[in-house]
Amino acid sequence: MSPVAFTVFFCTLLGAAFLCLYRLQKGPTAPDRMVAVDMLSTLLVGLCVLHALKTRTDFYLNIAIAWALLSFIGTIALAKYLEGKALDE
Amino acid sequence: MSSVAYFLIGGGVLFELFGAIGLVRLPDVYTRLQSATKCVTLGTCLILAGAAVGNPSAAFIVKAVLCGVFITLTFPTGAHALARGSHLGGVKLWEKSVGDAYDEVAEEIRQRDEAGVEDAPV
């Protein structure tokens, strides 16, 4: 990938991540912040894939897969917390 | 890297940006959840497809397809759980919303919980 195209893609994703951080800071309720965190983790998967493509090492794709699964577990746990129940209920 | 890969990755990055703009601009949790899920899942899958096209080594393609399958399975499920949790947790809809189809089901779940019935429907 040419360096210019990589920089453009990377900066666009970073801008989207800063928009997520704005929503994370603004709120106004707890679920809003959780949606922002959920989306931020998805953006990080995209950033990992772009970095893997830039450095031509597939190791970063392993990180992307592990990150996607871990953020899923975190989202499920937080959703159960919002509902006001324990994890095994 | 071929122009197809550039097209796929550029489209995916744009979708993610639109999802982030929707996350900031939309009025309540449920509409924000829609932009944060639909746009971003499609955008990430497009980036993964572009990575698989742009670096055609076997390990790259296998891992990109695996990651895409995980993402299409897990992110909509997580968003569904978030919407259910915030509805049962009592987050209100936007005041201009026209309807709430989930309200009856949520009311049923609450009544079962209060009655202490085991094995409530998920």
Would you summarize the structure shown here?
The complex is a heterodimer of chains A (89) and B (122). Chain A has 89 residues and is mainly α.
What features would you highlight for this structure?
heterodimer, A: 89 residues, 3 helices, B: 122 residues, mainly alpha, Helix Hairpins
SSE topology sketch:
The complex is a heterodimer of chains A (89) and B (122).
Chain A: H1 3-26, H2 30-55, H3 59-83
Chain B: H1 3-25, H2 29-54, H3 58-88, H4 103-115
Helix pairs in contact in B: 1-2, 2-3
Description:
The complex is a heterodimer of chains A (89) and B (122). By secondary structure, chain A is mostly helical. Chain A has one domain (3-83). Helix content of chain A is 84%, strand content 0%. The longest helix of chain A is centred in the middle third of the chain and has 26 residues, at 30-55. Chain B has 122 residues and is mainly α. Chain B has a single domain (3-115), classed as Helix Hairpins. Chain B is 76% helix and 0% strand. Chain B contains four helices and no strands. Chain B is elongated. The chains are: A mainly alpha (89), B mainly alpha (122). The interface between A and B is large, with 48 and 51 residues.
